[in-house]
Amino acid sequence: MMVHPHTRFDLPEALNAGEPPEARGVSRDHVKLLVAEGSTVTHTRFDRIGDHLRPGDLLLVNTSTTLPAAVDSASYTVHFSTPLDDGTWVVELRDGGAPMFHGTAGVRVELPGGALTLLAPYQSSNRLWIAQPPVADVLGYLQQYGRPITYNYVGKRWPLASYQTVFARDPGSAEMPSAARPFSFELVSHLASQGVLIAPILLHCGVSSLESHEPPQPERYDVPAHTARLVNWVKANGGRVIAVGTTAVRAIESATTPDGTVAPAHGWTDLILGPDRPPYVVDGLITGWHAPEASHLLLLESVAGPAQVQRAYDAAVEHRYLWHEFGDSCLILR
């Protein structure tokens, strides 16, 4: 049964960010930042996030690189979401920008450079399919024929570089782990000189499920040994662990025991944080703004509590923050 978030708000169309901040004359790290801590809401700019962090705090950053995961054919657009262990892929078919809910097993979808065959619905979804891809080397295929996944609120096509963060190193995300997009190399070095620690974590994002408010699908993740050790050291020494993005929360919590101890881990995670499973180790997160009813709101509520998340979202709508991957940012602390 899908649990729905407590946070409620109406998102005016004008607050959907339709282009990267750079196209609006704003550098990556100059997007707006709302800081929600306790009952206080502070409005600032992302490059001043260090004012709200302390020496010894640890930022967990997702090193996943965004793939050009959308391939257009004469009839459909195919979103390549996630490779499965047997060489098949989870895909989503879209028709005129909307998800297609009436696929049929055995159907061949003609694509440039080959055909994709639908095999079976994925995890009883009526939107996602397990498919045999056109070629064995899908990453190479996407580099040749793919483009970044876009949704209707983004008015035109932007280059793949617009969908990468400064931490991107490991190819694998269908959609950008966008919480880290506002970081610049200058800001990273400034935070490091301030004594803020940064450690890598990996979670490859599948296609988002904002249309249908589905819970997150299983995703591949990796918590390296050095990151696990650093998290344990930071917690033992009174620092805070702040995840950059819901992806980083999901990854680190998948490697954490109820007493808050982290061990190295990798593989698939189907962890869903919410009322029944609060975070054991994360003290806060840096995140973009999520659509009404999105399952990510449950994760935010599990970190900070529904009242604090509602306060943040009400303030963001009132002060006209911009939503989605090219929008503004939020630091929410327990």
TrEMBL record:
One of its GO terms (molecular function) is S-adenosylmethionine:tRNA ribosyltransferase-isomerase activity. PANTHER family: S-ADENOSYLMETHIONINE:TRNA RIBOSYLTRANSFERASE-ISOMERASE. Pfam families: Queuosine_synth. Keywords: Cytoplasm, Isomerase, Queuosine biosynthesis, S-adenosyl-L-methionine, Transferase. InterPro entries: QueA, QueA_dom1, QueA_dom2, QueA_sf. It comes from Kribbella sindirgiensis. The keyword 4Fe-4S does not apply. Residues 1-24 are annotated as: Disordered. GO terms for biological process: tRNA queuosine(34) biosynthetic process. This is S-adenosylmethionine:tRNA ribosyltransferase-isomerase.
